[in-house]
Amino acid sequence: MAAKKILVVFGATGNQGGSVIKSILSDPKTAGEFKIRAITRDPSKPNAQALTAKGAHAVFAVTNYWEKMDAELEMKQGRNIGNLAKECGVQHLIWSSLYDVAKLTGGKFPNVEHFDSKAAVEQHIRDIGVPATFLMPGFFMSNIPGGAFRQLPPSNHWTLALPMPADTPIPCFDAGSDTGKFVKGILTHREKVLGKRVLAATDYSTPSDAINIFKELFPKAGESAKFVQMSKDDYKGALAHAGMPEKVQQELYENMAFMNEYGYYGKSSLAESHEILDEKLTTLKEFFAGAKAFEGLE
């Protein structure tokens, strides 16, 4: 029997990394092919030994911008991982990336750091010639129930409030359940996806779709449910009320405006990215049905 290949997972305790480990080990085929080496330490100081001790074949890496809200730190972390992968002869680096919003919009939205920093790492990985695939996570479904979609005073009606029109297409993604499904597909279709971006989302859903799903699942609570398109000032004001600094307020507003005007994925189809999957993705309806924030609703 051939020895198992080592898959190193950075960010193993997070939603994305944890999902990768679960998907790989729960599938008899990939569990028989790969052995997981989980890395949970600060990725600004990646452990080279973890990549070299038993000849790491593949690496999945994700960094958390929101932990320090420092783009330079995130880029340093990502470039360190890329450099180590190059040095250690890793055969397949899967980098959790995002688009360069400043570049894609011609500088119109220059402050979406949590996208642009990951895009800079992606470019570095391409420049140094590491065999890589770039996973592009969609809009986290977990941001909706209890976050953007919650009961608002004084009426306490369930309200989805975002600074975009009701028909804006949002590529919704359950990171905790579905990251691993995409990564497993990337690993098992290596030659097909080397150098490519894989768009990780179930489908495009609009704010109107989200309201309709809520009404279908929870008819009583949904009687008065509505979508509100917020102004820039109101959206930033709500974030300020939640304790977020001006820098983050502007970043998140530009993120939303970019999604409406240019498309989260530049309006690309998800069909090609779905071709590598062998598991069903989580729908927005399924996520809403199990969301803790909606628990007990009728």
TrEMBL record:
Q: Which Gene Ontology CC terms are recorded? A: nucleus
Q: Which UniProt keywords apply?
A: NADP
Please list which residues make up the signal peptide: none
NmrA-like domain residues are 54-288
The organism sits in which domain of life? Eukaryota
Give the similarity note: Belongs to the NmrA-type oxidoreductase family.
Q: What is this protein called?
A: NmrA-like domain-containing protein
Give the originating organism: Letharia columbiana
